[in-house]
From TrEMBL:
Major location (coarse): secreted
SUPFAM superfamilies per the UniProt record, alphabetical: Lipocalins
4Fe-4S is among the record's keywords: no
Pfam families named among the record's database cross-references: Lipocalin_2
Keywords, alphabetical: Disulfide bond, Glycoprotein, Lipid-binding, Pyrrolidone carboxylic acid, Secreted, Signal, Transport
Family designation: Belongs to the calycin superfamily. Lipocalin family.
Native source organism of the sequence: Salarias fasciatus (Jewelled blenny)
A GO biological process held by the record: response to reactive oxygen species
Compartments, as annotated in UniProt: Secreted
KW RNA-binding (keyword) present: no
Domain of life: Eukaryota
Designated name of the protein: Apolipoprotein D
Amino acid sequence: MTQYFRVFFFFLLFVLVYAQGLKLGKCPQPAVQANFDAARYLGKWYGIQKLPTTFQKGQCSTAVYTLKSPGVIGVLNSELRSTEGTATVKDPAEPAKLEVSFSKDSPPGPYWVLSTDYQGHTLVYSCREVGLFHRELAWIMSREPTLPEATVQELRSILSSVGVHVDKLVPTNQDETYCAPMSQ
C-alpha cells in the first residue's frame, strides 16, 4: 500500500505543479532591454500572446502606462474589467527591471522588459520563486491589435532561449468587432 501511496502522491504533485505552470528550480535571470527608456515606453499596448494566468482570460487585453513620478509608472490593465497598479524601478542602474503591484494585499511582482522597440512590440517577463519551484509569466504586446508573425517568432525565440515553454503561450483575442464594446 505504501508504494501505491508514493506513486499516487508524486503523480498528484506532478499534476498540480504542471497545472499551475510551476517549474522546478530557481527563476532564470534573462538579459533585459539595454538602455530602457520608460518615457518612450509609456502609452497603450495590446496583448498579443501570453502565458496563461488566473487573472487574465485573453480577451481584448490592453495595458496603458503613464508616468506618475520619476521611476514610478502608473499601470492600467484592461480586459473585461480594469485593474490599476504601479510599476516601480527598484534599481536605477537596471531601469528595465520593474516591480508591479496591483493591491496592498498582494506582494509586488517582477515586471522585466526583455525587449522593446517602443513603437511596435514589447516582451515582458516575470518570475516568482515558490519553494523549490518557480512560476513564470510572459507577455508579447504590440502598439496595435496585431503584430507581424516574424516579430512574434523573434520574441518567442527570446523566451525560449531562457527556458520558457513557448508552446504554452496563448493568443489574445483582439478582434475589432468583439473588442469594440470595451473601447466605448
